[in-house]
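Supplementary Note 3. Input sequence used for the single-chain structure prediction.
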Amino acid sequence: MTKKNQDRLYLTVANEMIDRIKQKQYAVGDKIPPERKLSEELGVSRTVIREAMVYLELIGIATIKKGAGVYVTNSEQLKVPARFLSTRHTIFCMPGKS
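The predicted structure, written as discrete structure tokens, is reproduced below.
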């Protein structure tokens, strides 16, 4: 995973997860791997993973279910306000939300 200087680390992780969703590694309804596994795999702290998952939930890509994990809820690519855009991706968003 490469980090761009202007991105916060959680955005870099979120973008990696978005890439995986685009590449069909995770489909709608799939559970995203646990924090510990992603942390080891991507070489970042669990706090960074947690922040990335919250970001994905805020932009409508995932749902966090307390005690159960994080699930992909949307993979449609839609335009969203510029304040949500990272430097690498057009972000996904749930229809009707912006």
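The domain at 9-83 is CATH 1.10.10.10 (Arc Repressor Mutant, subunit A). The chain has one domain: 9-83.
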